[in-house]
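INTERNAL AUDIT FORM
Audit reference: QA-55
Scope: verify that the stored structure record matches its stored sequence.
Auditor: D.O.
Record contents follow.
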Amino acid sequence: MLQKDEMKFEFLPNDILIRCFQYLDGVDLLYSFDELNHRFTKLIRTIPLKLDFRSIPKLKFITFCTFLSENQTIKHQISSLQLSNEIFHDQIEKFLSWFSLTEFPHLQRLSLIAIDEYDVQEFKTALPLFPRLLSFRLINSSQIGEHLLSILPLSKLRQLSILQSIDNVKFTLQSSTITYLNLSQCNINILYDLLKHMSLLKYLTIENLCKNYSSSTKQKISQEISPLNYLKQIIFNQFEYSFNDFESFSSFTPNLQSLTLVKHYDIEMIDAKRWQRLITSTLSKLINFHFLFSTHLVDDINKKFEQFRSRFWRRDHRWLVDYGSNEIASIIHTIPYIFDRYVLHSYPIQYQLDNLNRFDRIRYLSLYNGFNRDQYLYYFSNLNSFEWHREHLNEDDLTIERDLKYLSRIINFFQLEHLTMYNNSTDDINLILLEIFKQAPRLYSLSLGLVNWKNLFQNKELCQCLNRRIRILNGQHYKLSRTDDVEEFCRIFSHIEQFKCRVTKRKHLLYLLNNLSYLAVLKVIVLKSNHRQSLFRWLKKKPELDVAFLVQEIASSNQDEEICIWLDRNIDKTMI
């Protein structure tokens, strides 16, 4: 039996400690364990470090960069680096002002998110100099990031992810060692051009393989592409081509073991016998087949659906399917449902089978009112986020009680973290929120489509829940226009960390910044007539504002602007 001291973390064997350390982000690892004792420091200096700066606070980022610049050994340990401009809008530029990428000679994985034109030149110079680079990810960088793709060292790259459209990108490929390719969107012409040079590819994921209406490339394709003998897995989350096109493509994948395919409004795809012939003749190695097909409502569709319940599907391969229809369309998919998001409309799909694990993968649910409370074939057991659009205002207590009873039958709230509610009055939302708080112990993020929160604040029990539980609040329709409202809000949400609202007076904005001590991100919606630059200059001149801030325009409309104020407490403003 272990003694008490032997159960402490620091007494674990070195190999177990190293394995634990490798699960941690490098920033958190160094902040938590480096120099805690000589043994931990020595172990940390022996492992590769992964640095993820996507959501790091600015103060922590600057402090860490200072530390990193003074430790050459640690720079040589860095094997993975993720930089993002999405929250901290000039993070990549600031990182490049601290370091040259050549200072990280053992970098193997690089992810760039929302890179801008000022950063591209540095990467264009440095990327060809990384002989060890195995993985590159480019995310949400629009046309600017395309300049990087032509100079990537693809001859040694193993993983490539481009999560943006690449319809106009020209790759300069000769021979590639890429084994994993992930694209958010491209057409079939570009895909074939890539695959001609990726004979070692094992895993292919494309969110949207979109239709190309230019001239056909079938003859050219058949002549130039060789069989992809190593390709084991394909995921097409939106396939816009025909069954014939897929059959042509599958002829180059003789050893495919896993296929995920989604095609909407194409009855040609709902042909079990044709799929059986294709799988038997061409895809004989296929083990896992996940699909979702839909079509406009047609007569006798259930007969086509029933063909997917033959021995070939159910017993020989154990591919279980479910199917159903509503007033608009019919759908068939493998179980469980492919995606992690689901929208339950007023006219839900009436499924033919009673399968409770149908939606086990669903993490994000949107529910529109008008649902049939007598339909219980839906059950969402693993929700992380729930968005509820309610059509009727000022419903009586009995109607609200029925809605809540229905929700408890179709939703397991235990894992729920994010709740969004629209089209509610403050008279009925009190009861709804309190009941959901009781069933959702992990709920910390709330979005409400309310203009007036006065009645909400009068419920003492609800205010206690809001103060104790909510850390992220989106009240973009809520206008803080009275001093009493601002003061009341700061009292009730004293622990809020992220907040979005409308602010009409500068003094109220200043009050929020000075009195919400945990606030890290404040998004305010203001009229375009309230000139943005004037507002920024005014904030910077306020001596009572004891926080530094970063301001970024997030979105704009014809009348309003959304401004993000990114805060760090007690930061030296000369460093920004």
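Auditor finding: record pair retrieved intact. Residues 213-220, 570-576 have pLDDT under 50 and may be disordered.
Action required: none
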